[in-house]
Amino acid sequence: MTSIQHNLQHLRERISAAAQRCGRDPQEITLLAVSKTKPASAVVEAIAAGQQAFGENYVQEGVEKVQALAASQGIEWHFIGPLQSNKSRLVAENFAWCHTVDRLRIAQRLSDQRPSHLPPLNVLIQVNISDENSKSGIMLEALPALAQQVAALPNLCLRGLMAIPAPESDYTRQLAVCQQMAAAFNALKQDFATIDTLSLGMSDDMDAAIDAGSTMVRIGTAIFGARDYTGSVQQ
Ligand SMILES: *Cc1c(COP(=O)(O)O)cnc(C)c1O
């Protein structure tokens, strides 16, 4: 067994255990394998181990992998990085999901640029739930208005919410933040029939996120190993 296979199996067991501890069905939780900075060969190994959903942060790098692996059946690519307007077309044309919609202008561009032969782009609205230093994501107060506008766009499907809580080591405090996201997610479900995805939880807060109701955890390092940024140019 390769280490990627081994890591994936171990993570699936951790997700199952976390779900069972809080009385949830592990099937409700999707593992998104974050492959940023990793070569296509690492993604191929993960695919061989049964992994289907992959997350990328950098548009250019992500598009290269999407195109290199276009022949792989059943693979779903998620864009999870900050998105600048001038890169929106590449996301609209190459990805199945975008987790980082946080303003109407970017949503409008993604809808306009989504090719007509593809199904609507699945989108999540990113909420800035606890990190005052982060410029990404909207405040919860602004969510109802933006959700209405995004849901009305023809070539997008509003599926739910995403957040990157500020790092916090205390489980009770992690859980409190995750529960705020879950409450917003459940409220949104009442308003839109398409809402089914709460993208919440990384390596250090996965258990609290699952406990609160996350349906998608985003994990990179624990699958693919540490990232090496030396010498690379990110966009
Ligand atoms: C990099 C990244 C992850 C995964 O982080 P790891 O620490 O490698 O598990 C998850 N979500 C987002 C938005 C990321 O940028």
Helical residue percent band: 40-55%
What fraction strand? 15-25%
Q: In sequence order, what are the helices and strands, one letter per element?
A: HEHEHEHEHEHEHEHEH
The appropriate CATH architecture is Alpha-Beta Barrel
CATH topology: TIM Barrel
Q: What does the overall shape look like?
A: globular
* E-strand count: 8
Q: Low-confidence parts lasting 5 or more residues at pLDDT below 50?
A: none
Mean pLDDT: 95
Strand order of the largest sheet: 7-6-5-4-3-2-1-8
**From the alpha-carbon coordinates, what is the Rg to the nearest angstrom?**
17 Å
**Biggest sheet: strands, sense, closure?**
8 strands, parallel
In angstroms, what separates the terminal alpha carbons? 34 Å
Q: Superfamily at the CATH H level? A: Alanine racemase
Query: Treating each run of at least 4 consecutive H or I residues as one helix, how many helices?
Result: 9
Small-molecule binders here are: pyridoxal-5'-phosphate
Number of domain modules = 1
Structural class: alpha/beta
Can you identify the CATH class? Alpha Beta
